[in-house]
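Structure, all two chains, one model.
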Amino acid sequence: MPSLLGRTAQTARFLAADPVLTAKGGQSPHEVIFRMGKSALRYFPPAGDAAAQRPVVISMPLINTWTIFDLMPGRSVIAKLNAAGFPVYLLDWGRPGDEDAERPMSYYIDGVLGRVFDRARRHASKHHDTDQLDAIGYCVGGTFLAIHLARHPEQAVRAAFVATPIDFHQSERLARWANPDSFPLDTLIDSVGNYPRDLMKTSFQWLKPSGMTAKWVGLWERIDVEGFPELWAALEQWNGDGVDFPGETYREYVQRCYLDNALMTGGWVMATAPVDLSKTTIPALVIGASRDHIAPPASCGGLQQVWGGDCDVKTIRGGHVGICVGNTLPATLIEWFDAREA
Amino acid sequence: MSDLKDLSTEMYRNWEQSMTKWWDAVLDDPQFIKGMGDNLSVQSRARKGYEDQVDKTMESMHLPSRKDVVRLARIASLLEDKVLGLEDALLDQSDTLARVEKESLQARVDAAEALVTVQERLATIDSKLDALTEAIGALADAKKPASRSRSRKAPAKKPATAATKEG
């Protein structure tokens, strides 16, 4: 075990090499099979010649890059799903620009997700001899997926929602902040267009201010643990690589989800069709993270009350991001898909 | 040294705990939240004012402003939407064609199968006809010697009849 000074020197040496700049996620072999606007559908083939499992479409959140599911070798949800025989189709929303500021939420939920499922199904039909798909959604990507499946129940056979907020009034501090009396939603979007990534990052940091010092102390404490400094750098790189949230979509998302809590209370009409999660009957799995301060387990568990199909709920140890780089999340997903009949 | 490390870690944990309590009180305070909201509102208006000013400056210098670039990008997006709409229509057409092709292939297979069945039935009928013809031939053959023998006996009878008549 290094001494106090030795540990500090080792940490300084590690940081001096600028490891965050060189870290790069999304290294698992894959190809882009479809593009729409800034979005891309990435296909990760299963290990071996033939798929042992039904292909799965993954909907990632709009507020960060998709690489958190493929952060680095040994820390990749996608690689583990591939190894278990799942062909993976991942929806990367890309980096919206100013020209996307006026896109409504229905563009992403009906337009992009609709085409992504269509193209994934065509690809799976050609390469894996099946036109049935499963689905996984993470964070906001899960919320979007749930709404999409409620509007188009034929798209997937089963769905798993990872750290996906549904009952937004259970979102603790975020729900308290997203208060119509104090949060200038309309002024903000009318002024800046897209919700800026820097503001998003700062907001999340201030949800838990201790995290800003804890990450440095954590690195110092575990600088000698094999693989930890590299993981720390990869997470830092991902965390700093945010994307802007399309303005009009953000306005509708915050208004309907955080302010009205419309997924729980109803009354949300999107592009002339109602948003009603009870309209689908496919089985669902809800995975909450025990120390999640962005989508707390109570917020994720809300799905059980409003989902039209059977709904299993599991809580795994970790934080909102931490669960994506551990082994428990892929193992839980694989176990559920193996055991759960459609 | 290990003790020192433990000590510093413990000190940090204590500090973190007390700071977390303090931050919790501040960050959940309605007045603080309202103040943050007001601040955000002012900042975003200021940013819009600045960006509008930059756009005006660019325009006065006859240079493309951010708004112009955004307008062009939106036109490109609209074009892409149209292309994607066409791609969807083409894929649907291709699905329809594939279905029609599959159905016509099935119809050809069905027709070929039906033809084979008809041919088989014809062959069966043919062979039955052959058998019948053979049977008829055999019957005819069988009748011929009989009629021939009858015709051979008949002249023998005739004189008898004649004899009877005569008698």
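The mean pLDDT of chain A is 94.
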